[in-house]
TrEMBL record:
UniProt entry tagged with the keyword Glycoprotein: no
Signal peptide start and end residues: 1-22
Protein keywords: Hydrolase, Signal
Official protein name in the record: Class F sortase
Keyword field contains Methyltransferase: no
InterPro entries: Sortase, Sortase_dom-sf, Sortase_F
CDD domains: Sortase_F (cd05829)
Pfam families hit by this protein: Sortase
């Protein structure tokens, strides 16, 4: 049986950062290439589409089943805008999930979203995030930055992922 990462657990409190009255939307739609382009991370061989999603009625990010694309909250910050743009992707125990090697990134690695280039500043593994910790990932304040999220450290006996891998990157000036 295929076991996909439960990224939803990391992003369960997404509505904390949502504007009052945000409408739950369960469907996914592929963001047009002219709007965002694709996600490219040369250091780990990622070249992925970006799918804009809403939230479920329970407030979870409505991440779909594609293991090769990444998901962006459609009401959140776009990559390159002020604040933190969050992209979540699956890691898959049987591979190839888009973020299978996300934990291998190092500070200084390049991440490209459309015409925007970001430099990785921090890679961390966390267990147990509070609602406030999750809400901070979705900030619409401060310098433009990118946050990439997936699951890590799978327990092969239970199929449960014990940690979340969170990569922070800052926007580089346009050339």
């Amino acid at each position: 049986m295929r076991r996909w990462c439960a990224v939803l657990m990391v992003l369960a409190a997404v509505l904390v950062a949502a504007p009052a009255g945000a409408r739950p939307v369960g469907s996914a739609e592929r963001t047009s290439a002219t709007a965002l382009g694709r996600l490219s991370i040369p250091a780990i061989g990622v070249n992925a589409g970006i799918i804009a999603v809403g939230v479920t009625s329970s407030g979870h990010l409505a991440i779909g089943g594609s293991v090769r694309d990444v998901y962006r909250w459609r009401a959140g910050v776009l990559p390159g805008q002020q604040g933190s743009a969050v992209l979540a992707g699956h890691t898959w125990s049987k591979g190839p999930g888009v973020f299978d090697n996300l934990g291998n990134l190092r500070p200084g690695n390049l991440v490209i979203v459309g015409k925007n280039r970001f430099k990785v500043t921090r890679v961390r593994r966390v267990t147990g995030m509070s609602r406030e910790d999750v809400a901070r990932l979705f900030s619409d304040r401060g310098e433009p930055r990118l946050v990439l999220v997936t699951c890590g450290d799978r327990n092969n006996l239970t199929g449960v992922y014990r940690t979340r891998i969170i990569v922070h990157a800052k926007l580089l000036p346009r050339r």
